[in-house]
Amino acid sequence: MSASAADAVTGSMPVVVGRDLTREAQFTAFAQARTADLVRIAYFLCGDPHRAHDLAQTALERTFRHWHKVADGDPFAYARRVLATARIDTWRRTRKEVLTDDDALVWRSADTAPASDDEIAERDRLVRALAKLTAKQRRVVVLRYLLDRSEAETAATLRVSAGTVKSTASRALAILREELGADGLGGSGREGRS
Amino acid sequence: MNAPEHDDPFGRDLARMAGDLTPVVDGAAMAGQAIRREKRRHMAVTVAACVAGMVAISAAIGAGGIVYADRQEPLPASTVTATPSPDGAERHDEPVRHELTYTHPEIGEIRHGVPAGWTEATTEGFRYAYPPRWTERPNDQRTFGEMVEIRSDEVVVRVPGYEDPEVRWNGYVESGDPGPNFWPGWVNTGLDGTHEIEVPGADYAVAQVTEGPFYADGRRRSLSVNVHVHQEGEGNHAKVVLNWPGGEDGKRLLREFLGTLSYEAGPRR
């Protein structure tokens, strides 16, 4: 594969949105840079790699539809909001199905090295724990803790109040503590476990 | 990404568990698909708006007929009447009713070769052929290689007011980007309608076929076909996207088209 194609596949190509480019070219540059991130977010939200791919595709289509409005702002934030507010009700899958379907996606670390078994195991344990949450709780946890959004940003994205974010997060964390606490969080996480 | 605002150690543990793993995806290909789908959607909305407008006009004519020409039968309000086009492109005499059902038909046995009268073409080593009187033209929406569009001589439906109002059956053929086969990490072969096919000179060839309503004319059925091919020996990748007529004739045409695909140089098998 050529270098440019490898960049496209890994999504590591920087966003180059030149004003002299066509709308399609601008959008394609954006998608090359951020689609992998969108699929990753979608995967945490829905827990199904196929559905995550579809959700990311939908987010891209909605983003392209409104490109004239979002291109000069933060198109990734727009696409992320599409994901965060999308229907994710295909979550109800068994653990076996989740693990089997995960084979459909190949994952890499930020340095583009193939993911280690330990990394995947930790990620999958989190995904299974997230499955215990309601869709609303999962959206809050993904935005607030996995994507490091502030309460205000999370509230704005989900169009709820900051108080709702706080209370929803509190309940969600309690459930996750129960799910993950029994086996321990491992590594540096142990010190932070309550 | 923002610096973490929360100071809950457990929240940091969750972020650590999530890690920095990102999936290997073809962002450019997904962008291309998004662009094509959005353009189709836009056209479908335009067609629907045109039809709705014609229904309204028809109803108004019908009402006017009652008031001003009581000896004449008014036009039924539910009838859509479009002006026939000079080249005989289909006119709408009935309201468009989209039958929103999708099936995954079997494509049957594929015989390799080029049917009589078809035009042979090659794009970046990928060989194919298209039916008589169809035409080929370059397309600038490529995502990884050289891309051409093939299109029918038949005008399936006209969409007035559009830059190109003539909607035809068409397909996109793209080939290029040599190297190890990346399609298996991208193509979801678990989808219904997925067929492994044989393409000479290729070590990977998967066709995905869905039959559903044609986006520009809901009374017709059409085949939506995606074909992903990889040339053996770390060669080129190819992708074919078809908006093809449905029904038995469409499936026969598809079989014949798939039989023309090849990454082999030299005489056809």
TrEMBL record, chain A:
CDD domains: Sigma70_r4. The keyword rRNA processing does not apply. Residues 124-174 form the RNA polymerase sigma factor 70 region 4 type domain. It comes from Myceligenerans crystallogenes. This is SigE family RNA polymerase sigma factor. Residues 37-96 form the RNA polymerase sigma-70 region domain. Gene3D superfamilies: 1.10.1740.10, Winged helix-like DNA-binding domain superfamily/Winged helix DNA-binding domain (1.10.10.10). InterPro entries: RNA_pol_sigma-70-like, RNA_pol_sigma-70_dom, RNA_pol_sigma-E_actinobac, RNA_pol_sigma70_r2, RNA_pol_sigma70_r4_t2, RNA_pol_sigma_r2, RNA_pol_sigma_r3/r4-like, WH-like_DNA-bd_sf. PANTHER family: ECF RNA POLYMERASE SIGMA FACTOR SIGM, RNA POLYMERASE ECF-TYPE SIGMA FACTO. Keywords: DNA-binding, Sigma factor, Transcription, Transcription regulation. Belongs to the sigma-70 factor family. ECF subfamily.
TrEMBL record, chain B:
It comes from the Bacteria. The chain crosses the membrane at residues 43-69. The keyword Transmembrane helix applies. Keywords: Membrane, Transmembrane, Transmembrane helix. This is Uncharacterized protein. It comes from Myceligenerans crystallogenes. The lineage of its organism: Bacteria, Bacillati, Actinomycetota, Actinomycetes, Micrococcales.
